[in-house]
Amino acid sequence: MSVCIEKDISVMINLNAGSSSIDLVSQAEEISCGYPAIVYATCSLAGMMQRVHRDLEAGVKLQVIYGGDGTLAAVVNEVRKYLNESPELEAPSIAYIPAGTGNILKPTIGINKLKQPLESLLQKYQNEEELPIMNIPLVNTEYIDLETGENKSMLYTTAGTGLDAELLQDFEEVCRGKSGLFSKGLLGYMRSIFGKTVWKQGASLFKPELGEVKIKVEGPAKMVEVENKEESYQEFSGLVYQGPTSKIHSVFVGSHPNVGFGITGFPHLKVKDQYLGDEFMQARIVKGDKLKMLGHLILKTPTIVTNNFRNSPYISELLIPKGGEIITEFDRPVPLQVAGGFVAEACDIKYKREEEMSLINWAELIKS
User: Fold this and answer.
1) How far apart are CA 248 and CA 173, in angstroms?
2) CB 325 within 8 A of CB 218
3) Are 357 and 136 in contact (CB under 8 A)?
4) Secondary structure element (H or E) that encloses residue 164, with its range
């Protein structure tokens, strides 16, 4: 096979990712020796985006991404943007090797059984074997950049505002860049929740958040109804909530059941519905009295981390297929997160179930 080291495989490593390290770079370089691959490591997403541009212009066939969900989201969105501007270029295949903190997609892509996923991948590629692909459904989050007034959008499996976005910001402040058992993974998140987020939320009881918000659904959707522990899915469209922002604690939208650490945050996505088909997203709107809501969720923590949490009187559950959207209109800026990272402060936000992300299917790679 005729190969060019600049035009076949690009291995990109984000050293700022939660479980990344300089040892990972050395290991990747050692494995890549003798294969048509070049390893690029950076502490900057901007540097990684420059590498993405170079890869696309050089005609790279396969990009291998070491990083967390934020890294993967950045690469996928940059590739999408660049190809829209230069449609004559060809999209490379993407192999994702989770090296982040929560690693939303790790249980899905089947990588757990591989001790050396990069080596297995390079061997398959060099042998000219077809690389198996899986499609991951995505949420398209549209918002207006308040600094520039520009319409922007970002794709990934999770996005949201409120308590969820605040928790991620608190984790960044409490744990990011620190070593030790209680600064990593689920323990790090639990530390930030009970060490900062809960106390901040408690303090806000005495100084409620100001402002108004309107949440509505346009197009087809279903609301999850629970009666005597029995679930049903009722057709729904229109206004979900309109009133004080202080009564809406989180709007969390996902197109994939997992939210990181192996936790199922969107259990209703596993439903196969004749009306919705398989191509829908789930929106969880946490609302109501804050003190009662916080107490309820704290008591439910064991069921959340063991994936036995499905419904709550403080959460409205909506299932929205392609063609539908959920729209939030805040009268003042709120933090927006996509892929577990802060993106911008925004007022008007739309979430749609659109497009898919194609990744190497590691489970099928083992079989082939």
Assistant:
1) 24
2) yes
3) yes
4) helix 163-175
pLDDT of residue 333: 92
Computed over every residue of the chain, the mean pLDDT equals 87
Nearest to 167 by CA among 140, 185, 194: 194
Strand partners for 144 = 151
- Taking alpha carbons only, the member of 250, 235, 218, 182 closest to residue 325 is 218
Would you say residue 202 has pLDDT above 80? no
Alpha carbon distance 255, 218 (integer Å)? 17
Residues 124/211, Cβ–Cβ less than 8 Å:
no
CB 112 within 8 A of CB 365: no
Kindly indicate the confidence band of residue 3, based on its pLDDT and cuts at 50, 70 and 90.
very low
Question: Parallel, antiparallel, or unpaired for β 9-14 and 62-67?
Answer: parallel
Tokens of 368: 């082939």
pTM of the model: 0.88
- In whole angstroms, give the CA distance from residue 352 to residue 302: 31
Residue 80, CA atoms < 13 Å, CB-side half-sphere: 17
User: Could you give the CA distance from residue 321 to residue 317 in angstroms, rounded to a whole number?
Assistant: 13
Number of neighbouring beta carbons within 10 Å of residue 88: 5
